[in-house]
Amino acid sequence: MAPDAPQLPPLREVIRRHGLAARRPLGQNFLLDLNLTRRIARAAGPLAEFNVVEIGPGPGGLTRALLLEGARRVVAVERDARCLPALGELAEAFHGRLEIVAGDALAIDPANLVPAPRKIVANLPYNIATPLLLGWLPRIAAFVDLTLMFQKEVAARLAAEPGSRTYGRLSVLIQWLAHVERLFDVAPRAFVPPPKVTSTVVRLTPRPEPQAPCDRKALERVTAAAFGQRRKMLRQSLKALGDAARLLGTARIDPTARAEDLTVADFCALARALMPDSR
Q: Are 128 and 107 in contact (CB under 8 A)?
C-alpha cells in the first residue's frame, strides 16, 4: 500500500452523491468491491516504478486500487462527463498522482499519455474492448504489460490454441505480438449492475520480437480471409486474396487445411507470401 494513502469515502457513497448510475450504451458495469479491485491491481505486479494508464475508470474503484497499491502515476481516460467530478475528488486526495483525461479512448494513443515504463490496467468497457486492443497493437511494445478485463469468451479467444473452437483471427493477431495469460474469472455479481456474462482478467506481455516476421497489414488480410470462411479449406477461403494456390505453395501450407489448423507462424508465412518484399 502507498505510504501516504488518504482516508476515502465508501465508493457506494461517492456513486450516490454524484448520481452515477451505470449506463449500458457506454458499456458500464461498476466494480465496487475494493478487495477485488485490489486483486486486479496486484495482478499487474509491483506498480511503484510504473506509470499506469487506465481506460474507463467510471467512479474510480480500480483507480483507487491502483493508487493504493503504489502506482507512481495513474492517467485515467474517461468518456462519461458525469464521472469526472468524482474522479477529480480522487485526484485531489492523492496529491498529483492521478490525472484525468476526458475523452474517447478509441481516439487516444495511450502510449502518448505517460512516459516509460508504462502499463495499462483496466476493466475495459465491454462494447469497445476488442477494438481498443486491436488499436493498441501497432505500439504494444511501448508497454511493459497490459492487465485487462474482458468478457470470458473474449479472453478465451485471446488465449486459444490452434485446433480449438475459439481459435480465430483475434488469437493470431494478439499472440503474434504478445504472450497471453488468463489470470482469474470475475463473477457477474461483482458488478453493479451485474452483466449477463462472466469476466476474465488477462495479462498481455509484449514479445521482444514478433513470433515470426511479416507485415501487420498483410497478416490482417490473410487472417480476415481465412477465418471469414473458416469451415472451408484454405484453397477456397484464400481466393479472395488472388492466386490461393500460389500463396499456399509459397508458404508451404497444405491447401486442404482450414484456418483453425494453422499456427501463428503459418499465418505469418502466408502474409510474407502475399507481400514478398515484407520483412
A: no
The tens digit of pLDDT for each residue in 145-163 reads 999 999 999 999 999 999 9
**Which residue stretches of 71-215 are H helix?**
84-93, 129-136, 152-159, 169-177
Residue 31 confidence (pLDDT) above 60: yes
Contact 110, 55 (CB under 8 A): yes
Choose among 115, 90, 109: nearest CA to 100: 90
Instruction: Judge contact between 81 and 102, C-beta under 8 A.
Output: yes
Please name the residues in contact with 249: beta carbons below 8 A apart, sequence gap of 6 or more.
none
- Domains in the chain with CATH codes: 11-206 (3.40.50.150), 216-274 (1.10.8.100)
User: What length does the chain have?
Assistant: 279
SS3 state of residue 17: helix
* Contact yes or no for 176/211 (Cβ under 8 A): yes
pTM for the whole thing?
Answer: 0.93
The C-alpha cell of 165 is what?
473452437
Query: What's the whole-number mean pLDDT along residues 20-42?
Result: 85
**Cell triple for 272:** 510474407
> Which residues make Cβ contacts (< 8 Å) with residue 57, sequence separation at least 6?
63, 76, 77, 78, 83, 87
Closest CA to 50 of 26, 75, 32: 75
- The rounded distance, in Å, linking the Cα atoms of 213 and 192 is 44
